[in-house]
Design brief:
Elements lengths: L5 H20 L7 H11 L2 H11 L9 H27 L17 H16 L4 H15 L11 H16 L2 H5 L4 H20 L23 H22 L15 H16 L10 H19 L1 H11 L3 H29 L1
Helix pairs in contact: 1-2, 1-3, 1-11, 1-12, 2-9, 3-7, 3-10, 4-5, 4-11, 5-7, 6-7, 9-10, 11-12, 13-14
Length: 352
């Protein structure tokens, strides 16, 4: 049995923490330039790195049953949580009607749809030499921004925009990544990340939406031919930041390594907490840097909690669609409800 690679588990745990922290920070980027710079620094690498790592692990694309496997892993949970989030938003935002649109992903669910499409696209692009496939995918990504209707529908914009990063990850070899984890590389990575942060701090007018990959150029106030070169610049920035991040990821097994195996659970479930936080008066408490450091701590605790055995055991029957576990979960819920009704009946009879 092949030993699990702890490096990538560690990387995924850190990345999912940055996903949670970045989503919590979103509410405050218009109030504080330092927080805005931190936010853009995080977004310059956290999803590109997730996509890069996903591409690295897509090397079994030609194995029998692979497409069926990823369809079950990605599309079925997407459809379930698309429905769940629709109901959740209906109550949270007190909407007049319940709208369910399976073709326009709610918020962070875009990643599941795009990841499925990236694996399908890989069947064709992987047959070319790496530099040819990457060049063609990058050209498509740069030109797609001029097509206004390619946006959040079926996550098409992000699918095309981030596919080059997925393809680069697919062609990357383990020994290439191992070269990053040394003192010299980490020193360069630290300087790089600090420089990018201060660059964002110095130029707060830089639109963070360039980092999302979800908008056509016309919505980024840059519909001219210059726009594709701007996007190309952000590609280079993100790739440098991805390698800079990976340089700091430890190789060994640590107490947090196990949590890196459960990133899908965190990704699907943290939105309920983040959206509720955004609508609550608690957000008014976070007004200075010290409070935002505490918010980072809250993000870490939330990440650990959603990665815990308790949450995974409860959510696994739904997320991974294991019918035997789902039946057991429903049976336990039924027994619990019966016990509650039994207690109420006893109390009722005692009152007479």
């Amino acid at each position: 049995m092949r030993q699990r690679d702890y490096f990538f588990d560690n990387a995924k745990f850190f990345l999912i923490f940055f996903v949670v922290f970045g989503h919590l920070l979103r509410e405050f980027i218009s109030d504080n330039e330092t927080i805005y710079a931190v936010y853009k620094t995080i977004y310059s690498f956290h999803m590109p790195a997730f996509i890069f790592v996903s591409g690295f692990f897509a090397k079994g694309i030609y194995e029998k049953g692979y497409i069926t496997k990823i369809a079950k892993k990605l599309i079925l949970p997407y459809l379930i949580f698309q429905l769940v989030y629709s109901v959740f938003y209906f109550f949270l935002y007190q909407k007049n009607s319940l709208t369910i649109d399976p073709l326009t992903p709610h918020w962070s669910l875009w990643f599941l749809v795009s990841l499925f499409f990236w694996n399908i696209m890989l069947l064709g692009f992987s047959k070319w030499k790496p530099w040819i496939g990457i060049s063609i995918s990058l050209t498509i990504a740069l030109l797609i921004g001029y097509v206004d209707f390619v946006s959040n529908y079926l996550s098409l914009s992000r699918t095309f925009v981030f596919f080059p990063m997925f393809l680069i990850g697919y062609h990357m070899k383990k020994e290439h990544i191992q070269k990053l984890t040394n003192i010299k590389a980490r020193s360069i990575a630290f300087i790089t990340i600090a420089t990018v942060f201060f660059w964002f701090l110095q130029f707060p007018e830089i639109n963070y939406k360039w980092l999302l990959g979800s908008k056509p150029y016309s919505e980024l106030e840059s519909g001219s031919y210059i726009a594709m070169f701007t996007r190309l610049g952000f590609y280079v920035l993100s790739l440098i930041m991805v390698f800079s991040f990976l340089a700091f990821v430890p190789k060994g097994q640590y107490f947090f390594t196990k949590w890196g195996k459960q990133t899908l659970y965190v990704y699907l479930l943290h939105g309920f907490f983040v959206r509720t936080f955004r609508e609550s008066p608690l957000k008014n408490y976070f007004t200075d840097i010290e409070n935002f450091i505490m918010l980072a701590g809250i993000s870490l605790l939330l990440t650990i909690f959603l990665s815990s055995q308790l949450i995974t055991s409860l959510a696994q029957p739904i997320i991974e669609l294991r019918t035997s576990q789902l039946k057991m979960l429903l049976r336990n819920i039924s027994l619990y409800m019966d016990s509650i009704r039994g207690n109420r009946n006893r109390k009722s009879s005692q009152s007479y």
